[in-house]
Write a structure and sequence with these properties.
It is built from twelve helices and two strands, in the order H-H-H-E-H-H-H-H-H-H-H-E-H-H. With about 350 residues, it is an all-alpha fold. The chain has a two-stranded antiparallel ribbon.
Amino acid sequence: MIVIRDMRAALMLMLMLMLALFLSAGLQPARAAEGGSASEQVQRQKDQPFNNAPLWREVRKGENPYQSTQVRGIETNVLIQSEGQLWREIRNGPVTVYGGWLILGISAVIALIYFVKGPVRLHGKPTGRMIERFSALERFAHWTTGISFVVLGATGLVVLFGKHVLLPVFGYELFSWLAILSKNVHNFVAPVFVVSLVVFIAIYLRDNLPEKGDGAWLANGWKMFSGAHLPSGRFNAGEKVWFWLGVVLLCLVVSASGAILLFPNFEQGRLLMQQASVVHAVAAVLVIGLALGHIYMGTAGVEGAYQNMRTGLTDETWAREHHEYWYNAVKAGREPVAGSASTAPAAPLTEGWRL
């Protein structure tokens, strides 16, 4: 019995020794690698002091055993977000550079048209008989949306281009105050613009639907600067392009992307906000460029246009020369007040009216 027990003990001892040797052999490479990594770190600190690239690579991954937080929420354990550098390069690179040149180019074209061609003037004498072109509600919606748009555009340009254009002129202290003011005004005026935009679209949608004659107007729209007579409905095709492309598409994109940036309490991550920032800036630059043309045509570009929106009334001569289909519908009783006009017979498209 003693011999059997000794044999069992010997077998157990041999099995334990074999298991120990197996485990030590498996752990040896890991220890060697860990030792090598540690030795490499020591050597790196000697050859390249303060170079902690391996450490920061681990930090950038966002998931490692050495990085944790007690704060609960989306991306709270991410100390360094690599996509942020890409966002910065896009925003301060193509968006700022090409966006700036686009706005300057459109401004230069508008100035060239004004000084070379001048404003589009009436060819006939005003009759003194006035027609209601815009109701009080339509004018209120237009001016509320327009004024808030101008405020947002101006403050947005300061935020996007200020450090490149204004900072060298104003200096750090004055520009800092201007940038902070612009940012806060931008954030508080934005909700006013979004609400008024929805009301504006609802009011003007029907009169901006495509109709017969819009294609001919678009094909010959440039001739109006040389005095050509281009009949249209209540709004011409150029105004409809501005409505659908600028007001509906781009302004809604600006509003949606701006809401993502303005209300971060819906747990959107940094990546989504960075993407929204780029979309917001690109759409804003495009709609500002289109708005420059609209503002020019509604003020200095077309004689009497600003007065129409300010008072809501227009002279019969102005209505006949710029919106003849709508004028004919009003005179025929099909359109007694401001509103949608159906197509009525008009003078043929000619180039006989010149400045």
